[in-house]
Design goal:
Order of helices and strands of chain A: HHHHHHHHH
CATH topology of chain B: Rossmann fold
Structural class of chain B: alpha/beta
Strand order of the largest sheet of chain B: 6-7-8-3-9-10
Distance between the termini of chain A: 52 Å
Oligomer: heterodimer
Number of helices of chain B: 8
Number of strands of chain A: 0
Distance between the termini of chain B: 29 Å
Order of helices and strands of chain B: EEEHEEHEHHHEHEHEEH
Helix content of chain B: 25-40%
Shape of chain B: globular
Structural class of chain A: mainly alpha
Number of strands of chain B: 10
CATH architecture of chain B: 3-Layer(aba) Sandwich
Chain lengths: 236, 229
């Protein structure tokens, strides 16, 4: 049984081999820095795009992988870009362009991060970076049980299709709502059993993991290189 | 007969607002012994197991490794008792097989080096060394069962409580599980519907009916008596 995240999109790139905390820090810092660029179009945007393309190439992520994610976010980006246009503010066009540029850059960077870093490593890195424990614990369990719930959804769908021949005369929405309710109730029951299993295995409020080695100087330098380049663009 | 590891006296339990799940259960498990717990669905087998690790608490007395099963002793008892749940997905909650197997020993506060050795040994016992870096949802049902067992073994418990360990396994996987469990030195309480599986592992069996142990003896004897084949 293979599920939706059976593997990384770019498992053999140099970026995939880098320390996940390095990649996470670099990606987040870069996104924050890009968001501080002034809205007026300038050479900065062009250089930033060149840097992003270089990172993309280094990551060896297929264009389709990134573009699908950009396309999924496009309606939301378009909506956000429309707001300055309808407001009638001076320089609305530049503002809308800046929204599109910053949001698209962020999605491209985070897609590259997702393609080269397992979700569990990202979560572990968030823990290292001091994200509140309750958030990290919830995310770890969600990451694990999302796939269990998806499998349950698929199982129920298969059973339904077997009984209906894949045809539904009417009430499609009602059927989906009932199915979602059933998965929710099963998930609720499962949560009680998971809690019991956690207790029997000595759970004390933390998910300890066998850690990867700590960051070396080279990896730490790599962590600051990308945001530093963007920072230079920002201040020059 | 070895030391007495589990002693249950007159255990009774009723779920809140529900039926009487256990009635006057008496049970003993000695060191190096494997006892099969047979009985129909809903006869109280899993409820009984849950009492042995303090997940439920009823009337009567339950002692594990000489300790009464009360809140103050639960940490020590759960270090000495490993429980394999009916549904492996309930008990594998870490992102990768290796992390999940390491979960128990790390929670015990063992040093990373010892944990790595335990993980290595446990995965070897269940034949999952090749799958250690996979997320659990990429394993088959049988592999998930073995991964859950590895997680239990890694804590090096004195007693194994196994709730329907052979469910969803195909015959070769069942045979492999019998070999693995048979080679383990721990005392075991084995809840199962499968007589052949129980007969291959258990020294004796008890039969649950309507929340009570109604018979005790050899697996084949109870299976014949209750037409349980």
């Amino acid at each position: 049984m293979r599920s939706v995240d059976a593997g990384l999109a770019a498992p053999r790139s140099p970026l995939a081999a880098a320390h996940p905390t390095v990649k996470l820090c670099a990606a987040l810092a870069t996104v924050v820095l890009i968001s501080t660029f002034p809205p007026a179009p300038s050479w900065r945007q062009g250089v930033t795009v060149a840097i992003l393309l270089a990172v993309w190439g280094l990551a060896r992520v297929s264009p389709g992988y990134v573009l699908r994610r950009v396309a999924a976010a496009a309606p939301f980006i378009a909506l956000a870009a429309c707001l300055p246009l309808v407001s009638g503010l001076p320089g609305a066009g530049a503002l809308a362009g800046a929204v599109v540029f910053k949001a698209t850059s962020a999605i491209v960077l985070l897609s590259i991060l997702a393609a080269t870093t397992p979700v569990e490593d990202i979560l572990q890195s968030l823990c290292r970076l001091g994200v509140p424990r309750a958030f990290a614990l919830t995310a770890v369990l969600m990451n694990r049980y999302l796939f269990v719930l998806l499998d349950e959804w698929r199982g129920i769908s298969r059973a339904r299709d077997c009984r209906t021949g894949g045809q539904l005369a009417s009430g499609r929405c009602r059927m989906w709502a009932n199915q979602a309710a059933m998965v929710f109730v099963r998930g609720w029951d499962r949560s009680a059993r998971v809690a019991q299993a956690l207790l029997t295995r000595g759970f004390r409020g933390e998910f300890p993991r066998l850690q990867r080695p700590d960051l070396g100087v080279a990896e730490a330098a790599l962590a600051v290189a990308l945001p530093l380049a963007v920072l230079l663009l920002r201040v020059v | 007969m070895g030391d007495l590891l589990i002693e249950v006296r007159d255990l009774a339990f009723r779920y809140p607002g529900g039926a009487q799940a256990l009635r006057g259960v008496n049970f003993r498990l000695h060191r190096s012994e494997t006892v099969a717990v047979l009985g129909a669905n809903g006869s109280g087998k899993t409820t009984f197991l849950n009492h042995l690790v303090g997940l439920l608490s009823g009337e009567g007395s339950v002692r594990v490794c000489g300790l009464p099963v009360i809140a103050a002793n639960l940490g020590r008892i759960r270090q000495r008792v490993g429980m394999l749940f009916q549904d492996a997905d309930d008990q594998i909650f870490m992102p990768t097989v290796e992390d999940d197997v390491a979960f128990g020993p790390l929670n015990l506060g063992l040093p990373a080096e010892v944990v790595r050795e335990r993980v290595e040994w446990s995965l070897e016992q269940v034949g999952l060394n090749g799958q250690r870096r996979l997320p659990p949802h990429n394993l088959s049902a049988g592999e998930r069962r073995r991964a859950a067992l590895a997680g239990v073994l890694a804590t090096n418990p004195e007693i194994l409580l196994l709730d329907e360990p052979a469910t969803f396994l195909d015959p070769p996987a069942k045979r492999a599980l019998v070999r693995t469990l048979g080679s383990l030195p721990q005392s075991k309480v084995l809840v199962t519907h499968e007589v052949d599986f129980a007969a291959a592992l258990a020294d004796r069996a008890v039969f649950f009916e309507d929340g009570a142990i109604v018979a005790e003896g050899a697996v084949s004897e109870l299976a014949d008596r209750f037409k349980w084949r």
